[in-house]
Amino acid sequence: MNSRAAHALRPGRRRALGRPPAILVAVAAVGLVFLVIPLVSILARAPWHTLLAQAGGPLVRQALWLSVWTSTVSAVICVVVGVPLAWVLARADLPGRSVLRAAITLPLVLPPVVGGIALLMAFGRNGIFGRYLDSWFGYTLPYTAAAVVMAQTFVALPFLVLSVEGTLRATDSRFDQVAATLGSSRLTAFRRVTLPMIWPGVVSGAVLSWARALGEFGATATFAGSYPGTTRTMPLQIYLAFQSTPQAALSLSVILIIVSLIVLVSLRDRWISGVSA
Amino acid sequence: MLRADFVVRRPQHTTDIDLVVDDGQVVALVGPNGSGKTTTLEAVAGLVAIDEGSIRLDDDVLNDRTVHLPSALRRIGYVFQDALLFPHLSALDNVAFGPRSRGLSMHDSRRRAEEWLERLGIDQLARRKPSALSGGQAQRVAIARALATQPRALLLDEPMSALDATGAMHLRTQLRTHLAGFNGPTVLVTHNAIDAMVLADTIAVLDHGRIVQSGTPSEVASAPRTDHVADLVGINLVRGHARGTKVITDGGAVITVANSMTGDVFATFRPTAVSLYVSPPDGSPRNRWRCTVETVIPHGDAVRVRLVGPITLVADVTPAAVTAMTIRPGTTLWASVKATEVSVYTDQG
Questions:
Q1: Residue B328: beta bridge partners?
Q2: Which residues contact B28 (CB under 8 A, 6 or more apart)?
């Protein structure tokens, strides 16, 4: 409803305020060109006639499917774990909140390879927790699809938490008080009031974290390795191809770009705009 | 019965309140911003914890040194200043939220919500989202939402403040009906003299976190303790029946007014609009009544005189006038008000 009101206002407001400042438009154009030129170049150089054949290859199909399903699982885990985490950060009175936030943001600034090493130290065969997994259950995480999901979740979670926390902060916390005076527990208030109100933020956070998981390379390579079918995701497949046959890497890149675009555009139309309208 | 005797300490201000509200009684809390009105409501509702004292409802302790019953378990209805309807729920589901939270099924909650929307005359708005409601409609939904939980006590925080004059008038009249039908204690925070006069049995004046004066509206209006109170409750309010530009009061007096109206009304005018004379004044559009002075109480630069006659009213006059006309209890005087100084509001729900 709000966004509809904003749409109705927009033409009049634009006219009333005059043209957008030339300097802002010019700098925005520079930024846009910088983002678009490499993408256009990759599309321009792509061997389109062999693309379909490439996409149909078993290795590529395996990698693409692995990438899509692990990213989706990662995004789901991010939502399930990340929304409560964001809520605690934004709404609960807890000491050392700024330290906690810094810790959550850390995977954003670390090189993903470092994230992969950290995961190995924790959950590797000799890791602090991993050794018990091995000795008690005979289970080793690294070099499995589960490790791929973990590596992707590790780097993608901050995107969701920050996005949802921002939405929570922009939402009036007095609605929690209203819900309380109406007799609802804090959990019920979260489920029936807070969650519906922050849903657009959750969806866009989920899309962001899915996209981040899909593009994940360093942590996956370090913690999960590169086994065809089980851990070799598209980014790994592309890098591998680039070492031997750059033309093939080019085709794979185009395939990944197209899949990402399809998913992002369809999510935008179906979910995000659907929620805000 | 609500007994609130507590202290809430904040870095900038302390609220130290001792308030008793009987079942069916409406107490209006008035006072300047930051005087502790909202803090008092929040403490009673359990939205802030008290530092000393206790809050009791009937025989139950809601809050004291050892007990802090969560808001959700207090069963106290709270109407917030800006309605605060849940934006993602329809009017109906906003009202059904409380019953649903208290364990009713979805179907029964909605049915009870429908009943309350109907009682407030807004059942046709049931499916609307809050963004498609006017301020007055939203506040009605908020009142229905608070009452639908069948609360043991009702708290209203400036329910009319966001409305224009006409909207406030209609809501006030309606609220009066519903407060009369509510059996628990009610506390109303307001900035508006007419709200306090029309809706409350008792006015409690807060200043710097304490109740500095309390009494019936006419007691407080006759003997305001401070200038702020004098200004806040400085309104004469007479109920009557309007026929054209005449209002016939319940006591049989006639007030001439500027605007033509029909039906049950209340007429209001400020104490400063009342002129006092020793002999009958002239002038055609004037209302004049022979009255006897009951009390003479100075406040700030003015003196508030309470007079009894065909109608009971208060007037603000200068100390010089008091001396010149030898105004004291028992003096007989003529009180006069211009028709254009009298505002008339409908009193029909």
A1: none
A2: B188, B189, B190, B195, B196, B199, B200, B202, B203, B204, B217
Q: Across the interface, which of A5, A188, A193 has its CB nearest the CB of B86?
A: A193
How large is the ipTM?
0.82
Listed by number, the residues of chain A in 158-197 with a beta carbon closer than 8 Å to a beta carbon of chain B are 172, 174-175, 177-186, 188, 192-193, 196-197
Q: Residue A63: pLDDT above 80?
A: yes
The DSSP line for A36-70 is HHHHHHHHHHS-HHHHHHHHHSHHHHHHHHHHHHH
Q: What is the spatial distance between Cα B36 and Cα B17, in angstroms, rounded to a whole number?
A: 9
Across the beta sheet with B60-63, the strand order is B60-63, B52-57, B2-9, B14-21, B210-215, B202-207, B26-30, B186-189, B153-157, B76-79
Non-local CB neighbours of B151 within 8 Å, separated by 6+ positions = B75, B76, B77, B184
Q: Do A178 and B80 touch (CB under 8 A)?
A: yes
The radius of gyration computed from the CA coordinates of chain A, to the nearest angstrom, equals 22
| Bridge partner list, B254 | B248
Sheet-wide strand order for B254-269: B236-249, B254-269, B343-346
Is the distance from CB of A241 to CB of A247 less than 8 angstroms? no
Chain A nearest-CA distance from B22, in A, is 21
Question: Which of A1, A180, A197 faces B71 most closely, judged by CB atoms?
Answer: A180
For every residue of B52-86, DSSP letters joined together read EEEEEETTEEEESSS-B--HHHH-EEEE-TT----
Contacts of B308 (CB under 8 A, 6+ apart): B291, B292, B294
Q: What is the pLDDT of residues A224-277, one digit of tens each?
A: 988 888 899 999 999 988 898 888 888 888 888 888 888 888 776 655 544 443
Rounded to a whole number, what is the distance in Å from the CA of A183 to chain B's nearest CA? 4
Cα(B167)–Cα(B116) distance, integer angstroms: 20
Q: Per mean pLDDT, which of A52-66, A125-139, B97-111 is the most reliable?
A: B97-111
Residue with tokens 């809520």: A87
Residue in chain B lying closest to A275 (CA):
B88
A217 CB-near residues (< 8 Å, 6+ apart): A112, A235, A236, A239
Nearest to A182 among B46, B70, B149 (CB): B149
CB-based contact A138:A132 (threshold 8 Å): no
Q: Which chain A residues contact residue B45 at CB under 8 A?
A: 181
Q: How far apart are CA A212 and CA A172, in angstroms?
A: 29
Residues of chain B short of pLDDT 70, as ranges, are 283-285, 348-349
Look up residue B225 and give its two tokens.
């303790």
